[in-house]
């Protein structure tokens, strides 16, 4: 520790400072007493509303009951809307599955018709090949122009008539297949239009039900003292 100097305190100076501080504290207390706020005086007046306590209690009870009913009604509406949405989703899935099944059925019928056409064409090709082989061993048409045609001319006429009958039968079957395809396409288009109309009607019916429910709630809120009438529009 280095050297230091000890200064003796000045008692006179200390007493003067203490007296000044005491005087300032006394002045502060005196100023507080002089500026203390006085008592508050208010003009007497009637407080509260224009209803009695019983009426207020009854009004609170009615508000509480209405709140419970509204919560219950909202919960029921939410359950109904959720159920309707689930049913609509199920109907939509069923419609999609039905359309897929119909498309598969149409595809299966088309494949069956194509298979039949190919089989019929194969039979026609084999029949024509057989008739052509038969025609090679028969005389020409100009050599058959005699008064009394022989058995060769008769066989040629029969083969020619048979070819024409097969060709007409083939044309008739092709025309019937085309008409059947046309009828199936028209029936498919009619079914799609009918399903679209049914979905539109179901959507409109659900929209009307929601609107009627909203108007019922609105009517019940605007006229709480009247009798609740469901179905008000």
TrEMBL record:
InterPro entries attached to this UniProt entry: EPSTI1
UniProt protein name: ESIP1 protein
Source domain of life: Eukaryota
Annotated stretches, region: Disordered: 136-158, 188-233
Comp. bias regions, Basic and acidic residues: 188-209
Organism in which the protein naturally occurs: Machaerirhynchus nigripectus
Chain intervals with Polar residues compositional bias: 220-233
